Amino acid sequence: MKIEFTLATLSRKVGPFGSRYRVGQRATEPLRSHFVAQATGKHSGVVTITDYDGNLKLRIDRWGYMGSRIFWSGFHAHDEICVLRKLLNRHSVFVDAGANFGEFTIFAAKHAASVLAFEPLPKVYAALEENVSLNQFVNVRLFQLALGENSATLPMYSCIDGELNNNEGLSTLYISDNRSTQVASVPVEPFDDVFDESGYKRIDVFKVDVEGAEIEVLRGARTSIKRYRPVLLVELNSLTCEAAGYTVADLSNEIRTLDYEICRILRGGRLEILSGNPTYANVACFPKKPAVPPPISIAYSEMG
Predict the structure, then answer these.
(1) What's the Rg (C-alpha) of the chain?
(2) Tens digit of pLDDT for each residue in 201-238?
(3) Range of the domain at 208
(4) Which of 23, 219, 223, 261 has the least CB density, counted as fewest CB within 10 Å?
(5) 83-111: per-residue pLDDT in tens?
(6) Which of 76, 106, 128 corresponds to the end of one domain?
């Protein structure tokens, strides 16, 4: 284990593009660890790294899909983090819908003025809360609820054994063939209602990665988005969209009706205008007409 930790620390220092072997590691580590966990009868891959984004603490499951990538390369969503790094400043307010254990929340708390993070699942919320506490952040507000178009209490589903490919981020409000086991009932609220009561007067970046509920989240945040014109970071995924009863084209159209330009996030955080309707993409969406005064000073044309 000591050798593993030493190699992982060195690997994180090199970064996501520094070593060819990391591609093989990413493919095999979750599988290897899954069988180890089965053999021992205990899933005990939880560790705390102390060099996340240089000097932050992050408690992760190094045997999970997301945790393994962070453990070995520093980030799971490296390309999206590269974009976020360019967007945030000391005045920014960042909203994290689908915060999970806090990869984006913890990063943003270091670089922005305030973070509002939403995570409905009790166990995952506890991990998020712990990561905020580990770093002693006082600029983060946590909400143990899901975001949607209307207020409700709804079931959340995961796959049969609670994981799929050992991926920590796959719980969803929408039942499907591979996510059919109810794991919790969670409160759902429209973002507009929550934000109206929060006391904040700006939103600069709004990340939405909620396994099929993206279109519902955007509809429940429509007033805030029109008023504050944040950059939107959104996952487009045909499988989760279809499980929720709509298509990637529907989600893209929903974003465009808000008068946004959609850009695909490429390797290293480069951007290109999205064309067509991909089966999967992470996108950064920029308002064609910013809020007045503009909440951020950088346009997507400057980020390419």
Answers:
(1) 19
(2) 999 999 999 999 999 999 999 999 999 999 999 999 99
(3) 77-302
(4) 23
(5) 999 999 999 999 999 999 999 999 999 99
(6) 76
